[in-house]
Amino acid sequence: MLLVRLQCLTARGLPWPAGLLAGRPTLALLAWLVAVAGDGLAQGVVAPEATTPLTATSDLASDMLDGVDRFLLRQIEAAAAGRDRRWELDLASDDALQRSLLPYREQLATAIGLRDERLAFAAPEVLVQAGRSAVIASSDAFDVYAIRWPVLADPAPQASTLASLWGEGLLLVPRGQSRADVIVLPDADQTPEQLCGLADGLPAGSQVARRLAQSGCRVVVPTLISRHREKRRGRANLTNREYLHRSAFVLGRTLAGYEVQSVLSLVDWFSNADQSRPIGIYGYGEGGMLALLAAGVDTRIAATCVSGFYGPRRDSWQEPIDRNFAGLLQHFGATEFALLLAGRQLVVESSHGPELVLAGEGGGPALLQSPDAEAAHQRLQAAAQRLGAPPLEHPQTHFHHIAPPAGAFGSDAAIAQLLHGLGNGAEVSDAAALSAIRVHRDAALPDASARQTRLLQQIDRHNQALLQESAFVRQQFMAQLATSSLAAFSQSQEAYRALFRDQVIGLFDQPLLSPAARSRKSWETASWAGHEVQLDVFPDVFAYGVLLIPKDLRTGEQRPVVVCQHGLEGRPTDTFLNNHRAYHDFAAQLCERGFVVFAPQNPYLFEDRFRTLQRKAQPLGKTLFSVMVPQHQQIINWLKTQSFVDPERIAFYGLSYGGKSAMRIPALVTDYCLSICSADFNEWVLKNASTRHNFSYIWTGEYEIFEWNLGNTFNYAEMAALICPRPFMVERGHFDGVAEDHWVAFEYAKVRHLYAAKLGIGERTEIEWFVGPHTINGQASFAFLHRHLNWPEPAADRP
Hints:
With 799 residues, the chain is of the alpha/beta class.
């Protein structure tokens, strides 16, 4: 019995008594037992080292979110303040200026997802019903046609010449010589017919397409996806625009990008058909944003009028989530958008823009307000000054700011200035003198509702086709990952880790603060003590969690650590108190097995409060994990300073959102020696982008979950490749609704193949299937921790 006790104590890291080995067994053994005596297990409570008292009485989780919020708002301000330094313009000549703007045009195209080559076409198709007139309406000055045009091909290689995405709208053709080609973009909640005077809803002055056609311009009015809102599959209440945005964003596209592609397809047609006519664009509200984006990336657009949109972009995170462009604010604000139009005509019409308040209801809450005219003037003036151009009031300037007295869009001054920029000598038609427009008796106006449904379904199908192709894209993306040896693998892996850090997760490139650790003992049982710990990370950003220390830990002994991560809306206490149905006190169980445990508070709680943080981070090219990764790095750094921690044996084990963390954080915090993903592992791109599967996030309230361009870069198998060759495990309940078994198996098979077949380290990865729901099982996973952390299992668990 004594020998068994000695073996138990030494197995937990306590050294054998030196005298026993030196031939003096009795006295040495007696002295040793006295030294470790306590309650029979030689217990002695250990506290965190080198900390000051934690005295905060507030909810530290709530304080954490407030601090991260302040930090992100400062980063938005810093991005705006630093853009002048990041934009390097060559003002030596017009040609030099345009060359220096080229990389910024490319950055804009990337941010809005202009990844695909557009289809060429000779002319749009005129949509006409059998037995009906092709001309659906006319005035004395122009005729109106319903048209469609091909935009993007079906992404499947064998269908690369077949259009899967079309534009639809109205074409207005003057009866005389066309002076210019102009694209008129309505707001998302307007129809082309309203802009042409064929449907009620707009006064004559705002019927911009009609007025331009009467002035001698050939005009196309595309249809935009509306903000119509409905519950999708009876769950999240999403606008049409957010519904399409969710899939597109994960696949490296955006809805706005698709609509810009549709606009640029028309520019392609105009340019190829007759290069002698100048091309202009006018947009209001959502159309104003698209007009600015399209002109920003394509210099063939000679004159642009932006109405009801232009102004500072620092609060764009509040706007509808389909305007969420990854990294855009890092490079572009209102001033920089104007700079892209240097040398061309830009008219900013500060009309009353569309106004909207969207409650969450499973979708992204949003606030849409009219832009401030004075702020718009200042930003436009700043762009002119940056270019050394004449002031806005100077007749030779290319930038013009117009604030209509009544606030209505389509003012005489704005349309006149747009026509002047096209250089065609046309005069703006008087709104009060517009000739009557009549629908032909043997024609029919397009069914606006059916047209909207067609366009929505086309974009959805295109996204789903991209999803099907994404596995092949990722395979090509990862082709440079060497697997000839572990050394070669680790070397080639670092380039992918950098891409994951910089382009997917996002890096706040600033040093960690001194942790200034604060702690207090808040829980205690017979076998462990729990200490709250707070650590500084960045200004206003701190890490917080609970350190569980076994009472049988001895001075000089170093134990392995398991970081136990809670899930969505969780708290550290969920992992060790009250036997929560999902966690089953797994942190406490592991501590009772002899592990030191740290249970961090991750900032994904308080619903919209944390989701809003993601909205603020993504326009900076960052994510919530851009904060969590340095928080965990600081936790690791501090744990390594504790004398009772073995710095080489610190593991990560997370459930649900904690499992999501288990895929991303250890991929970047390489001090974690292994990772266990519980109740989350997935064919993650499918789960985020599919509109076919019921377990998809498309239907749920997690509007922050969608990560930019994962479809073309890192699914869970690719993330696991960044954890490899460290041990990696998946814990999967058969009845866990986060996915279906075959999809989990499908994605994990790639991980197994990498570890076992390619690198010959199959013993370092495994998956446990168990009959159960969304929960910690704590069987094979505990054995995995004991084995790979080199810590003995309790006698009851041994075979």
